[in-house]
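Q: I'm building a small set of examples for a reading group on sequence design. Run inverse folding on the following structure and report the sequence directly after it, with nothing in between.
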């Protein structure tokens, strides 16, 4: 029976282009996971979008001297092009600046308010005497009260991950003019996490969560160990979702971005259902106790997805809670943390314009920051591309398909299988359960390593059997060896499809198959009720399930081979490095 799987991907702020860490840390692992489950025949809904609210947007708009809408429009378009070029198979990549999302956010707010999980509290807020205005948290910097980091933001320390209020910082100052920050009383709505804590603990303890990654479990445990407190969900801002309160005191306040951003997973599902003409389909994932929700995020967002978002869902009632939150660590560049202020970053759009998508996908998946911080190294990118994609997998496909096409033109009828034939064929069949089991538990790197052991073994088998000699000395044996090689390539086409969809589709066609094994996303227009037009990324991924070791049909036409991957030269890559 097919399962309903929600693949929820962190929403990037629409204040700058995506860097390689976004792809390696959230987008690519989510896509690999989603593609695998579609191949298994499960019903997958993969959603995300551009986060259009919050201080990062207004900061960028202030720097450029433009309205926030202009910043959103430009970078949302950039996101969509990057995601499309990498083949990230979203059912819907949308944005939070939509009427649908505003409606869902207001409904969430009012339901939590009516259920008694929101309350009004007065609190100190950051105020700039020089600018005569309240300051959003990210307009404030100071010394972290936990680790002493000198550039901690007003809401969170990037060094230790601790969440805090600006008033807890030592020596807080404004990022706008470096002037000291004072604090004034202001009234806000607060999410009653203290009131929700017993139900949240009951949910967390309702099952063994040892399958969670260590960082996810530790972050969550540390938060609960300290006890939960109410957390403000409104701010003195001009940009964002208006607070749906009747009081005039809140007419100039906005919903805090962390509250409305996580609601995006829910609102995007509703928007997707409307787009496909089945407005109630979102319920199959959100009001289905059997559905499993996976949240692909960075480690700095763990508490929002294991504490705050589940608490909001519990307070709202009747919606599916997270199953797993496979948070990744940070992805660096040449061993150093990326910093846009220092110009030390690797932008995804620069890579997508210079290299083939599967070469990028392979290296980013192989070097993904699972369990620890990892890094992009140009020398490793070249080595893995040339040694593993070109010389191993690409070489296997070319040599076997070339022999089959040249000497038979189709899949030959094999003779009796030898022990060597049976051994490699059995390894191909067994790989489906081993690779599949690793992907089920979101061990992406281990799954790729397991899958890629097979082309190495198959190349060794072909080299030992020497079918190019057998075609003359023993034609029957040659047919058996070439059939075995084609069968292994057919298995590998499927096993590698979640990781390398572009080349897997081409191998599928070279083997004589019709149809699509690796559907790709497309860009479409969306028309909002107000008549505004925007772009979204979507796709039709309803391919038949094929995560099974099927037999390649004897007599099926084999096409002329072509090179799947491009060998990279250090000179070309050095030039690209300098340009980037």
């Amino acid at each position: 029976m097919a399962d309903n799987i929600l693949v929820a991907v962190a929403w990037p702020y629409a204040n700058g282009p995506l860097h390689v860490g976004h792809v390696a840390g959230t987008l690519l692992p989510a896509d690999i996971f989603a593609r695998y489950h579609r191949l298994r025949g499960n019903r997958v809904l993969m959603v995300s979008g551009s986060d259009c609210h919050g201080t990062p947007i207004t900061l960028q708009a202030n720097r450029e001297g433009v309205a926030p809408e202009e910043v959103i429009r430009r970078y949302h378009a950039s996101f969509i092009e990057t995601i499309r070029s990498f083949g990230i198979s979203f059912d819907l990549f949308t944005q939070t600046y939509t009427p649908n999302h505003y409606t869902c956010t207001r409904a969430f707010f009012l339901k939590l308010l009516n259920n008694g999980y929101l309350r009004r509290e007065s609190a100190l807020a950051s105020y700039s005497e020089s600018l005569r205005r309240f300051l959003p948290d990210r307009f404030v910097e100071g010394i972290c009260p936990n680790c002493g980091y000198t550039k901690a933001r007003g809401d969170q320390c990037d060094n230790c991950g601790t969440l805090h209020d600006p008033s807890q910082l030592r020596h807080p100052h404004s990022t706008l003019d470096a002037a000291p920050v004072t604090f004034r009383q202001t009234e806000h709505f607060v999410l009653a996490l203290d009131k929700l804590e017993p139900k949240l603990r009951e949910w967390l303890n309702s099952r063994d969560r040892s399958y969670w990654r260590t960082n996810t479990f530790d972050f969550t445990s540390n938060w609960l160990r300290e006890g939960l407190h109410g957390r403000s969900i409104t701010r003195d801002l001009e940009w964002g979702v208006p607070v749906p309160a009747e009081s005039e005191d809140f007419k100039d306040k906005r919903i805090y971005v962390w509250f409305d951003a996580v609601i995006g997973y829910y609102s995007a599902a509703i928007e997707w259902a409307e787009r496909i003409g089945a407005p109630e389909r979102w319920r199959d994932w959100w009001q289905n106790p059997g559905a499993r929700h996976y949240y692909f995020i960075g480690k700095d967002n763990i508490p929002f997805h294991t504490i705050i978002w589940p608490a909001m869902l519990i307070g709202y009632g009747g919606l599916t809670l997270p199953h797993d939150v496979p948070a990744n660590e940070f992805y660096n560049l040449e061993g150093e943390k990326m910093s846009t202020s220092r110009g030390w970053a690797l932008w995804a759009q620069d890579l997508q314009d210079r290299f083939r998508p599967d070469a990028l996908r392979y290296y980013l998946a192989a070097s993904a920051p699972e369990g620890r911080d990892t890094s992009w190294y140009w020398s490793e990118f070249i080595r893995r591309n040339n040694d593993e994609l070109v010389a191993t997998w690409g070489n296997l496909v070319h040599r076997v398909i070339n022999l089959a096409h040249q000497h038979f033109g189709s899949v030959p009828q094999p003779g009796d299988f030898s022990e060597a034939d049976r051994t490699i064929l059995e390894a191909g069949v067994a790989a489906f359960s081993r690779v599949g089991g690793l992907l089920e538990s979101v061990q992406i790197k281990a799954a790729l390593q397991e899958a890629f052991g097979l082309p190495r073994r198959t190349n060794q088998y072909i080299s030992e059997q020497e079918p190019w000699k057998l075609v003359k000395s023993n034609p029957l044996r040659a047919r058996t060896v070439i059939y075995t090689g084609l069968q292994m390539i057919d298995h590998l086409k499927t096993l590698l499809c979640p990781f390398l969809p572009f080349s897997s589709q081409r191998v599928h066609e070279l083997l004589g198959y019709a149809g699509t094994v690796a559907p790709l996303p497309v860009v479409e227009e969306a028309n909002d009720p107000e008549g505004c037009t925007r772009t979204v990324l979507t796709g039709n991924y309803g391919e038949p399930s094929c995560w099974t070791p099927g037999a390649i049909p004897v007599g099926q036409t084999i096409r002329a081979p072509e090179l799947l991957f491009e060998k990279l030269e250090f000179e070309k890559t050095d030039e690209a490095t300098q340009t980037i």
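The first helix runs from residue 20 to 39.
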